[in-house]
Amino acid sequence: MKTKKHRKTLTSVLLVMVCAAAMVIFSGCGAEEEVVTYTNPLTGKITETEVDTARPLVVSIDNVNEAVPQSWLSKADLVYEFPVEGEQTRLQAIYYTEFPEHFGPIRSTRPYFVDLTREYKGVFLAHGWSPAARDYLFSGVVPYINAMNSGLDFYRVDDKPAPHNSYIKWETVKEEIDAQGWWDEKKKIKAFKFLKDGTESAGDRVDKVEFSYDAADCEFTYDAESNKYVRTVDGAEYIDKETGKSIKVSNVLVQLVKSREVDSKGRLEIDMCAGGDALLFTNGRVVKGTWSREDLDSRTIFVDAEGNQFRLSRGKSWVEVADQNCDIDYEIIPEETEGEE
To answer: What values do phi and psi take at 137, rounded to 5?
Structure first.
């Protein structure tokens, strides 16, 4: 005859067995474990592994005719295009998730390139400097590598004329970053806002936008099939030298600024905290708004007319920092009315 104590013990054992069996059955029926995901703050790409790079690398890239095509722009998470003296432009490529075997052609820096590096808490890579940029870098505002004083192995390639042919290997750059401890502490990078998957941007339809300086111009044309913008120069394909493929991006972000000449060489000064008008081209549409920046160690914020932050499509972006010398041209496409043929 079982006692009350024995009955309680048996009941407890049976409950444990039932619970264990239920867990086995539940697991065997395709129950999914919770998957933790991470969002790249610069591209919006969602992955199951966090970006392990402590901070971005910002590289000053030549963009005159003799320098084109450049190497590995396609691996940059973001590319900024800035005006420089002579109504030319220079690129600042921001690498955060992919680092190519080499970078180039690398050119000199200007103070507003350093301002950009501060915004992204980056390490800055360049070959040369203006006097103002040199003094700015010497003040220690950002960690940097420059061919003028680093002692590292920058080299010249044979298929471009000097000074448009300076390159450096990623292995060399990474060794210096490690030696200086610049990646010892991970920096928090403020993220852009992104559209939810499957949603479209507001704004007017626009298929093409053109940017024109006296000595430099380019176009971005929307390709609906890939939902990306194809970059061309005077209608010619703008390619990555290493892949031979066209440069394509998911967003073209425009930051309108005012510049002024500050020396006999025509070098420019740009207040990167002044604020101004902004445009976002994404999903074949244009959104109008403004930009602001609290200080040089803060991120630039882009908002629409209602004060909501711009929402980018997930993917890589090209940012045109365009001054008063740049003509921007695009045509709004009328929306189709239901019933029209």
So the answer is: -65, -40
- DSSP assignment of 137-190 equals HHTTSS-EEETTTS----EE-SSS-TTS-EEEEHHHHHHHHHHHTTTSSPPPPP
- Overall pTM surpassing 0.85 (yes/no): yes
Residues 241 and 117 sit within 8 Å (Cβ to Cβ) = no
Superfamily of domain 46-180 in CATH is YerB-like (3.50.90.10)
The average pLDDT across 71-99 equals 97
Same fold: 46-180 with 193-333: yes
**Does 3.50.90.10 match the CATH number of domain 193-333?**
yes
pLDDT in tens, 99-154: 999 999 999 999 999 999 999 999 999 999 999 999 999 999 999 999 999 999 99
Peptide bond into 100 cis (omega under 30): no
Of the candidates 278, 220, 285, which has an alpha carbon nearest to the alpha carbon of residue 253?
A: 278
Q: Tokens 């052609």 identify what position?
A: 105
Closest to 310 (Cα-Cα) out of 333, 339, 335, 279: 279
Beta-bridged to residue 79, according to DSSP, are 93, 318
323-338: per-residue pLDDT in tens?
Answer: 999 999 999 999 875 4
